[in-house]
Design the sequence.
């Protein structure tokens, strides 16, 4: 009997997989790293890895549609003369005019206002449209100070000092020349068509002691009226939260690595910072250790998509959440309606992330007048409002099932984890056990 | 707060003694000035290095500060004239929109940071990062400035009668820099440029506004952006 070697299928490397090989070839061909928008695309432990327990014999639920489950949140009650009150704890995260079209910013303002929540400016200043369409507007104070001026500080409802963001803790930004229209250039005091760098550090302060004085200055300029937030990327959440509190923040905004960016190096997005889930408990612990939990409010962002995510973030101790990418999707980003055009750009709906190139078929991440027209800000604002209301209702549904008459009454005890990683990060027991890794001696 | 008479103008001078009066009272009073009022003269005594003195001014008031101040004096000034009869801590006149700020002594780091307009005059020396990210402000320093000054400067003018430290004008955009003395080193993308008649004219104007009478514009050298880093190119990566 003759013997033939059986067929052995070609084996690709797990280390050098197809995507990695393509990236090596792309870098070799172009001589530039990949820049893209959005947050991390890698799979990381997330809210999906947590479950609510719901009511049982020892916990009784509230009647859906009958018994009230409050969703109101007050932000800035520590020092500000005029704290803000929102109907829902789901806020809209900072996104710049420049990165986004004027219509997109208007849509975000409209949607947030209908839903009774706040929206936030970004790196590029405040536009009249945005102010006009946003009942509650948070004004970001960023390292670049593009568009920063005292009049806008005073017409804001709150001020957010941005130290970092989840997609790139420690990184600045770059708005490429092709998105610099006359108006964007004028707002940023720079010539049209050149790349506009956003610095990674503030120009006039370094460290927590300086930050305390900077916050004092902002309070003095605005006569102590405005809540002052400090936003940090998810890197050292315990210490960053503690230092923000020490510096005098009314609100801490903590953004995990799933949080989006308008344009950053892919290597940065995928390799720097921690998942949102890993950030919450250390931040809450810092607030509790300082006796400031619920006195300094904590806003969590980075990958919040549903009312379940909202409820989980709040159960872990957050006071509110912020959404960015999800809000863009709600107003039309990556919609399959534009699939043919996404294909022409070499991508597909759901994967389009070249937000910095200004060619967005949905008319959102662009300054091209023709593309911008595609987004009706009134209809898009309505979609965002619907989405925010659905998320709020979802979170209430879960809270009622856990017997809570306010979303803030959700607590870690209501949760279990599906994986060891999520159990360790969220510090809730692995489902079916009473075990939390790192707790109880092993 | 005391009220006294300014003998020169015969207008009311409102005096705030920061040894006994909270800072908040001073800044609130400055913000409460109604447009068109004559009640615009303020004096601050015993500042004792206080931070955020006379910040957020939005009317054409005059503030005389008798002593040295801490961080962010005259921050975001929009139309006021603030004179510090002493030295200033970090970030003096940061993000100034318009008006004039004069420091009779020295200024610490980040003087005039991100300023968009107005004139900042420092009669002594300024430390590092003077004019960082400047966006239209004019700064005249009678003495010398420290390292990394005018970093990422976008527009406006920085005039230095003395010397400049390391990495002047690093990553500069369109701000124009004039230095009369030595420049220790230039930052990435900053080069010496021709001093043309329009620059001499602007220099003469700024020197006059800053009270400099014994220095000629032709004594300065001009520095500006080579504009090679305006659009990203991988072959320029070593410059960053």
Sequence:
């Amino acid at each position: 009997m003759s013997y033939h070697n059986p067929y052995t299928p070609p084996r690709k490397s797990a280390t050098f997989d197809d995507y990695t090989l393509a990236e090596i070839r792309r870098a070799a061909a172009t001589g530039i790293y990949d820049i893209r928008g959005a947050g991390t695309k890698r799979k990381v432990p997330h809210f999906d890895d947590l479950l609510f327990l719901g009511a049982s014999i020892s916990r009784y639920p509230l009647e859906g549609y009958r018994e009230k489950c409050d969703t109101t949140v007050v932000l800035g009650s520590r020092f500000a003369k005029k704290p803000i009150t929102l109907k829902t704890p789901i806020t809209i995260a900072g996104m710049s005019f420049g990165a986004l079209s004027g219509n997109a910013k208007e849509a975000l303002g409209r949607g947030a206002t209908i839903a009774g929540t706040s929206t936030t400016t970004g790196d590029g200043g405040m536009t009249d449209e945005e102010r006009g369409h946003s009942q509650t507007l948070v004004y970001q104070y960023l390292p670049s100070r593009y568009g920063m001026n005292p009049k806008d500080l005073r017409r804001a409802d709150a001020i957010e000092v941005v130290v970092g963001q989840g997609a790139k803790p420690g990184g600045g930004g770059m708005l490429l020349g092709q998105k610099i229209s006359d108006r964007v250039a004028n707002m940023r005091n720079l010539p049209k068509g050149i790349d506009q760098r956003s610095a990674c550090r503030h120009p006039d302060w370094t460290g927590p002691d300086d930050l305390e004085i900077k916050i004092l200055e902002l309070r003095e300029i605005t006569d102590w009226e405005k809540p002052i937030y400090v936003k940090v990327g998810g890197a050292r959440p315990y210490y960053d939260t503690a230092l923000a509190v020490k510096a005098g923040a009314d609100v801490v905004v903590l953004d995990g690595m799933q949080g989006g960016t308008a344009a950053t190096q892919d290597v940065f997005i995928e390799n720097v910072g921690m998942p949102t889930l890993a950030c919450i408990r250390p931040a809450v612990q810092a607030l509790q250790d300082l006796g400031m939990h619920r006195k300094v409010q904590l806003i969590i962002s980075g990958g919040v998509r549903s009312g379940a995510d909202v409820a989980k973030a709040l159960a872990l101790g957050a006071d509110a959440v912020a959404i960015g990418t999800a809000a863009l999707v709600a107003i039309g980003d990556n919609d399959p309606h534009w699939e043919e055009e996404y294909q022409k750009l070499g991508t597909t709906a759901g994967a389009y992330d070249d937000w910095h190139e200004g060619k967005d078929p949905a008319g959102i991440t662009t300054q091209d007048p023709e593309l911008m027209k595609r987004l009706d800000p009134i209809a898009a604002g309505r979609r965002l409002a619907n989405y925010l209301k659905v998320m709020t209702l979802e979170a209430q549904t879960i809270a009622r099932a856990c017997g809570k008459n306010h979303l803030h009454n959700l607590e870690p005890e209501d949760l279990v984890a599906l994986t060891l990683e999520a159990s360790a990060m969220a510090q809730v027991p692995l489902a079916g056990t009473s075990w939390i890794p790192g707790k109880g001696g092993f | 707060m005391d009220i006294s008479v300014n003998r020169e103008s015969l207008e009311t001078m409102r005096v705030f003694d920061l040894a006994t009066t909270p800072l908040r009272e001073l800044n609130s009073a400055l913000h409460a000035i109604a447009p068109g009022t004559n009640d615009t003269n303020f004096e601050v005594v015993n500042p004792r290095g206080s931070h955020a003195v006379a910040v957020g001014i939005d009317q054409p008031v005059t503030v005389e500060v008798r002593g040295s101040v801490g961080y962010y004096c005259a921050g975001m000034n929009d139309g006021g004239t603030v004179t510090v009869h002493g030295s200033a801590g970090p970030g003096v006149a940061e993000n100034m929109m318009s008006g004039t700020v004069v420091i009779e002594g020295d200024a610490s780091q980040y003087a005039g940071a991100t300023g968009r307009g107005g004139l900042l005059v420092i009669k002594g020396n300024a430390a590092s990062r003077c004019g960082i990210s400047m966006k239209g402000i004019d700064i005249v320093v009678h003495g010398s400035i420290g390292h990394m000054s005018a970093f990422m400067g976008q527009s406006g003018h920085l005039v230095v009668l003395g010397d400049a430290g390391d990495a002047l004008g690093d990553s500069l955009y369109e701000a124009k820099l004039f230095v009369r003395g030595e420049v220790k080193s230039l930052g990435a993308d900053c080069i010496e440029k021709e001093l043309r008649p329009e620059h001499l004219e602007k220099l003469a104007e700024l020197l006059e506004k800053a009270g400099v009478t014994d220095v000629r514009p032709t004594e300065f050298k001009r520095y500006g952006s080579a504009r090679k880093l305006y659009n990203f190119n991988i072959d320029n990566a070593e410059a960053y």
